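We emphasize that the prediction below concerns an isolated chain of 103 residues; any contacts that depend on oligomerization or on bound cofactors are therefore not represented. The input was used exactly as deposited, without trimming of termini.
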Amino acid sequence: MLKTFPPVQPDPGVTRQVLSDSPELMVVSFTFDAEAEGKLHDHPHVQSTYVESGRFRFTVAGEEMEVGPGDSFVIPSGARHGCICLEPGRLIDTFTPRRDDFL
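Result of the prediction step, given as a token string:
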């Protein structure tokens, strides 16, 4: 069954939309305006991030990295992380298990 989730704006310049979900896995699109921030946070979910477009400076567990289109990486469970958007773009994040707080 195909579900449609509305986009939401969790922070200024950031739009989040759940693309698909099951109890074990969730796929989410995040669209960022330039200079928008994904505030530092942590959660028990393992997260995989794919950069579809744009440029971002991520901090993951105290380490900084700059990423661009085609880059992907995994954020371990419990790792404090966040990003600053350097060039407008879109991230595709997957979470296991599902982020019930996004529903």
